[in-house]
Amino acid sequence: MKNDVILDIRNVTKRFPGVTALNDVSIQIRRGEVHGLCGENGAGKSTLMKILSGVYPYGTYEGSILYDGEELKLTGRAIHQARELGIAIVYQELTLVPNMTVGENIFLGKEPTENGSINWDKLYAETRDLLNRYRLDVAPQAVVRHLGVGKMQMVEIAKALSENAKILILDEPTSALTESEIDKLMEIIETLRQHEVTCIYITHKLEEFFRITDSVTVLRDGKTVTTQPTRSLTQEKLVSYMVGREMKERFPKGNRHPGEVIFEVEGLEAVDPNETSRKVLKGVSFNVRRGEILGIAGLMGSGRTELVTTIFGEYGRITKGSIRLEGQELHIHGAREAMQHGISLVPEDRKGQGLVLMQSILKNISLANLDQFSGFMRIDGDAELEAATQQAKSLAIKAPHLQVTVDSLSGGNQQKVVIAKWLLSKPKLLIMDDPTRGIDVGAKYEIYKLMNELAERGVSIIMISSELEEVLGMSDRVMVMHEGRSTQTLSIHEASQERIMALATGMELTATA
Amino acid sequence: MGVSTDAQSARARTGIGVELGKRFRSNIQTYTIILALVAIWILFAVLTNGAFTAPQNISNLFRQMTVTSFLAIGMVFVIVTGNIDLSVGKLAGFVSVVAAYFQANIWYSLIPDMPLVAATLSVVIGVGVGVLWGVLQGYIIAFLNVPAFIVTLGSMFILNGAILLVTQGKTIPANQPYFSEIAQGYLPPLAGWVIGVLVVAFLFWNMFRSRQSKRRHGFELPGIALDLATTIFYAALVMGYIYWVNQYRGIQTPVLLLAITAAIMAYVSNNTRFGRYAYAIGGNREAARLSGINIRRSIFLIFVLMGLLSGIAGVVLASYVGYGTIAAGQGYELDAIASAILGGTSTLGGVGTVSGALIGSLIMSSLTTGLQMLNVAPAWQYLVKGGVLVLAVYADVYFKKNR
User: Fold this and answer.
1) Taking the mean position of all CA atoms in its chain, how far away is CA B68?
2) Given Cys at both, which of B80, B127, B150, B251 links B311, Cβ 3.0 to 4.6 Å?
3) pLDDT single digits (tens) B374-399
């Protein structure tokens, strides 16, 4: 049973005009296993998944795919057909309707009906049974909008399972999850394994392969590099397969010498501007030195993003406390004022908040700083181009030229465009909210290097990160948040994963605030 | 109008053919619509035995398109920011009856012997009414957060009522000699040639200036042959147009006005912060906000601009028709929206060009004129125009998918 192959991908090649996205890829996936798929962005993972889920139907690629011993021929309504055959994909971007309940979402498009009207009791009963069977802890009648990202993901999985999925493709399922939510997800996958649901697991977090997968396939530049049982692999081996070279360290060592304190937040309290009875910050104090990287850790919902957007003047209404930059107290109303004071924010959601996707790299880089290139009316297009070119060069943005629209770039390059945009205003304090979320190892490394360089030049950086390794690998000090409060700021020597988790989960409560 | 100010940062020095091919592929939308226009003209020219492309008809065709073109230009900006303005037709109509009212009832008794002053004041008042209305709408939309669709829908009703109040249901003449010149005047042929020469000189100057500036900033230049070919093409287009309309009565004043307005607005859309912000807001409002753009202010100004252009359109309308009537401006908002969309403006916001809207507008008025010349019943004219709009957008969707 264990060696029974459910999916046999044979010599699949997929070409786009000008690029070969997949080049003779062969992978065998056994029934009931959790199969990791690993590779940098652009390695071909998404293309392969799009073939499996019918986005690129049969005939648009070369080679063959045997599913349960039979040739997989997805044509016509291919996406629908894939789902009917039992191949389901849980997308990186959640695809639920926020204003509907869990049950409605799961049965969207296949509501049980009786004489043309929906049988709600049946729908919710089936939802309940489904959720129970896979031990998913969500209420069937809960409105999705009110759920956290972790629970939304469970609903996505339940939705896939409701279609009797035999193969479940999980595309970066943990990118938005907190540690405890990840634990929960791992349990769910374990349950799926017991139910003989085959999982294809895609992630950028290498340690997850070792937590959950049975075997891992590495793709590089559209080719299969290797498929190996997970137990014979190590993180270092994986990385070297992915990048095709040995990578000694995941975090480049900087030569940082933090100077005096330049930025101070004291006893900051703030409320949600749309719902002033809801406190989002309940007392946050910390400081940042010149040329220092301060990591901010904390669980999802601990107020990390709320904190930095409030500092940037774009979110919370401050009710108490003070913010000082170079000794001067700031009262910032909006992004423009923050930038005038020398504060930049690389926002959390690259596509949603950082970029105008349909516009060129050039226009995205210059957007926040057009006043640098314009007099009363006119924008000096050449000066703009020159400045943007310089930024693009120093950040090594990979694109044929700056007129390319950013939606065609890889995640890592997109993030570089966002960073370029915010460096153009020459910030003293650069706030980066989860700067490496969803980007590949190579691009992460470049962004880390860039952060080091900036810090060495005297820019102070606040980095929020959901990955503890990243926080520990990059920060000089780590400030841990818990439920809207700052708990402690640890020097990098006292910080450890266990210590941070203890503070973040409130196990170790300390009142330094 | 099609002068590309986009500086290509890296472009290999390859043959003109390859270059043109590249340009074509990257602007497929613009070229599709131009090809559609050419096809329509050829079709009508054949069906009317050349009467369609005769100087007199071409002259009238361009004169006819001006009113909705002013509205379409403003509509591009409105739609690009992700908004809509349903009131522009009625606003232009209201402006036209106000301008007529002042001429017929006020200046007549107030300043009886100063026709030029009276005409000027009519224009000022007309445009002023447009701007004021834009300020009001913009304020409600941007600062009081009422959706543009609703505000402008309401304002369409209100202006309709206002038109009835001003006209009392009657037709008001607006045919002062000077005022009529605005939409019915022609430049003497010699003046036309002088303008033509100036424009062509500007095109070449602009090309060399742009190359010089690129060289100064150390960018790779596109081949001189390509730049020359493009510039010569536009120059030929301008001179050809002037030659043709001079065969009839010369450059039409309203067309000259439109060309100036369009050139300014095309420049604003590309080369000013105001223009860039409009595109960024429509493309990703959140990213624009976090980039420090004052979104309320931008949207407010967009509606003021729309009011200004509606005011100009209204004045031209009054002068063109020679009357202020209760039906003035009826349905123009739909023509303006259709022109903008035909010209490639995305209803989702963030994408659209002034030059595209002008070509869209030209297509719409070509269809009207051509079908009229073929004695096609008005019912069928509507059917054809509606069909063409949907077909054009479908073609665009299709090409995007299969690129």
Assistant:
1) 7
2) B127
3) 999 989 988 998 998 898 888 777 77
